[in-house]
Amino acid sequence: MKTLMAANWKMFKTRREAADCARELETRLEKLPADREAVLFAPFTALAACAEALGPGPRLRLGGQNCYPATEGAFTGEISPAMLLDCGCSHVLVGHSERRAILGESDEFIGKKCAFALNAGLDVTLCIGETLAERDGGMLRPVLDRQLAEALSGVPDDMPAERLCVAYEPVWAIGTGRVAGPAEIIETHALIRAFLRKRFASGKDEMRILYGGSVKPENTAEIISLDNVNGVLVGGASLRAESFGAVALAGLPA
Ligand code: PGA
Predict the structure, then answer these.
(1) 158 C-alpha to center of ligand 1: Å?
(2) Is 169 labeled as catalytic in the residue annotation?
(3) How many CB atoms lie within 10 A of CB 136?
């Protein structure tokens, strides 16, 4: 199983800024070992510019931050998986907590996107995570179980495990500088692994579980060494090539 280092640029960067940063990242990732992969979730408007800057067969794969579950149609403002593929994407992010909280996306809608995007040929990184109130109220497990059950409801058992990653991002750790502690990460990732084993007849032990929430170069090596942590999803610290490059290469001999 390859460790996945993923950058989420959110709503940052013009085409020019994005292309420059992607190009620099690609150079830094020349040292990425064969057992690691890197993906960049760039804004829609910058995807084609990034694909062009990266050239053919880049180490850094591209993904959209969202998609709509239809091939085409009267869905003003939306982007289809086919359009993402056309821009050079191989991945898509689904169910980020900012889309759940700010754009009001439901678990059911996220489930539709997951199934549709996988079927359309994109690899999916599915984000889940609880709020602080849910965690403090003893709701961690029911919330994660509900999010996972709905999101994976249309995913067939024969779907190759490496095509879908679950990114656990506690809402209280996103952009706050507060990282979940090792014990919290181990406990939660074990819950997610147990859910996946039960949900898929084949167990899907090769399905990666990423951690996200205030990941930075200084804490990455420890986080990816924890049980059932198979990579990271990085927001703020992915905006500079130097910083995301250091995350992607964390823990490796200099
Ligand atoms: P952060 O964001 O690294 O800035 O906390 C992570 C995310 O939202 O994916």
Answers:
(1) 31
(2) yes
(3) 11
- Residue 14 in domain: yes
User: Given the structure tokens 């091939």, which residue do they identify?
Assistant: 71
- Which of the residues 26, 98, 105, 169 is marked catalytic? 169
Domain residues for the domain of 28 are 3-248
Task: Please give the radius of gyration of the chain, using alpha carbons only, rounded to the nearest integer.
Answer: 17
Look at the chain and report how many structural domains it folds into. 1
- pTM value is 0.97
Within 6 Å (CB) of ligand 1, which residues are found?
Answer: 8, 169, 174-175, 212-215, 233-237
Residue type, 139: M
Q: Give SS3 for 61.
A: strand
Task: Convert the pLDDT of each residue in 221-236 to its tens digit.
Answer: 999 999 999 999 999 9
Residue 254 lies in a domain: no
Amino acid identity, position 168: Y
CA-wise closest residue to 244 among 32, 1, 2, 56: 32
- pLDDT 10s digits, 35-75: 999 999 999 999 999 999 999 989 999 999 999 999 999 99
Q: Whose CA is nearest to atom 9 of ligand 1?
A: 235
- Report the sign of the C-alpha dihedral through residues 219, 222, 224, 227, in that order: negative
Q: Is residue 253 part of a domain?
A: no
